[in-house]
Amino acid sequence: PPLLDPAVVRPDFPVLAREVHGKPLVYLDSANTGQKPRAVIEAVDAYYSQYNANVARAVHALGEEATTAYEGARDTLAKFLGANSRDELVFTSGTTHAINLVAYSYALPRLQPGDSILVTTMEHHANIVPWQLVCERTGATLKVAPINEAGELLVERFVELLTPDVKLAAFTHVSNVLGTINPVRELAKACRERGIASLIDGSQAAPHLPLDVKSIGCDFYAVTGHKMAGPTGTGVLWARAEHLEAMPPFFGGGDMIRKVRFSGTVFADPPHKFEAGTPNIAGFIGLGAAAEYLSGLGMARIDATEHALLEYATDALKQVPGLRIFGEAAHKAAVISFLIDGVQSHDMATMLDLEGVAVRSGHHCAHPLMDFYGVPATARASMAFYNTREEIDRFVEALTKVRKLLA
Ligand code: PMP
User: Fold this and answer.
1) Nearest atom (ligand 1) to Cα of 365
2) pLDDT of residue 253
3) Which atom of ligand 1 is nearest to the CA of 94?
4) Which protein family is it in (predicted)?
5) Ligand 1 atom closest to Cα of 227?
6) Which pLDDT belongs to residue 58?
């Protein structure tokens, strides 16, 4: 597909016009959280300024307008993810909430001593810690599928580890640290053939790749709204309808019931039985607008645009003496983790900030992955379709300056 023109898309993002420390902002931290287009900001504003009301409870005009917009967002997101039905989408506060929901409602009741959950070395803590918590409660254990130096999952090893004790395999679609794009269809198929449930952490995939959960063939797919141009505090758990039918609710409260008696409660149908209490209405209306915005640009075009940017940035960074890139997978999203010999990543990020360049430094919520590479932290530049080559040039220039000062 033809690449997106930054001159056309950048004006959609008001924050990109600002300056930081007197320099034009170069935002290279989209894997941390994505910037929001005006369409999203305006959708949130319109809800609060024109039809703020609670959803599903009121019969008055504002309540109906709010409910229509909120449930309309579910339709938009169902289409965005390639779901069979809107009822397969549970609104959550983010990926973290989505994975915990599966851990407690799906995995916990099924796990016994001797069972296992399989994860990979490259998981975010959000896809490790919930499993550890349910393992601790049930006597199950966590197994880990290894990666190679380039940051690619060893698929054969992953498949070998899918033994009958494994009740669920949880793996990321795209690594937030390395950018590695995992062969999720192949992995989900291997799980399915062995009757093992699969959960995919789609946090870093949803903003960048065309998605179709049906064709991936997994059981659960989690996304977080704020990384895909939407508001913070929003996320979606997509799950096969039969799982949502069978799973008990995680939270109890209003809006998730059909009938409450002190002798017992009849729950609402999915997805509502997992959505207790007043939700983040404005957030999900904004997330619907975000999905529409991204679809309007075209996910295949976004993917191609970012891939070109990744190649440009990788080539430029390789010219910086003493710079080591972590993650050189053959299939990679626009994320580059790196270190420069003799320079602390936090010092580097702080100095880059003075040049207006925003990158993240730290362990990226992936301690086991840092341990694998034997480093405490890395710096990470993560790009989106709204970044330009000129920004990459400014980043590399700033980095060269920082290196001279610190190395
Ligand atoms: N998984 C991955 C791969 C991520 O990058 C992140 C966010 N850094 C998360 C999970 C957690 O997302 P959230 O904090 O929005 O729930």
Assistant:
1) 8
2) 86
3) 16
4) Belongs to the class-V pyridoxal-phosphate-dependent aminotransferase family. Csd subfamily.
5) 15
6) 77
- Contact in structure between 147 and 181 (CB atoms under 8 Å): no
> What residue owns the CA closest to ligand 1's atom 6?
203
C-beta 233 within 6 A of ligand 1: no
Distance CA 178, CA 333 (A): 8
Least confident window among 75-79, 86-90, 262-266 = 262-266
Report residue 245: phi and psi, to 5°.
-60, -45
345 three-state secondary structure: helix
Note the pTM of the prediction, 2 decimals: 0.97
400 CA to centre of ligand 1 in angstroms: 30
pLDDT in tens, 166-205: 999 999 999 999 999 999 999 999 999 999 999 999 999 9
Residue owning the nearest CA to atom 4 of ligand 1: 203
C-alpha span between 85 and 348 (Å, rounded): 47
* CATH number attached to the domain at 6-30+298-401: 3.90.1150.10
Please report the ipTM that was assigned to this predicted complex.
0.97
**Quick check: CB of 201 below 6 Å from ligand 1?**
yes
Cis peptide before 271 (omega within 30 of 0): yes
Token digits of residue 41: 């900001």
Atom of ligand 1 nearest to the CA of 175: 3
Torsion of Cα atoms, 75 then 78 then 80 then 84, to 10°? -130
Q: Which of 135, 191, 218, 365 is catalytic?
A: 365
Angle between helices 281-297 and 61-81 in degrees, nearest 10? 40
The response to whether residue 283 sits with its C-beta less than 6 Å from ligand 1 reads: no
> Is the minimum distance from the CB of 303 to ligand 1 under 6 angstroms?
no
Q: Are 243 and 215 in contact (CB under 8 A)?
A: no
Is 191 among the residues known to form the active site? no
Q: Domain ranges for the chain, please list them.
A: 6-30+298-401, 41-295
CB 204 within 8 A of CB 333: yes
Q: Does ligand 1 come within 6 angstroms of the Cβ of 120?
A: no
Indicate if ligand 1 lies below 6 Å from the C-beta of 182. Answer: no
Q: Is domain 41-295 annotated with CATH 3.40.640.10?
A: yes
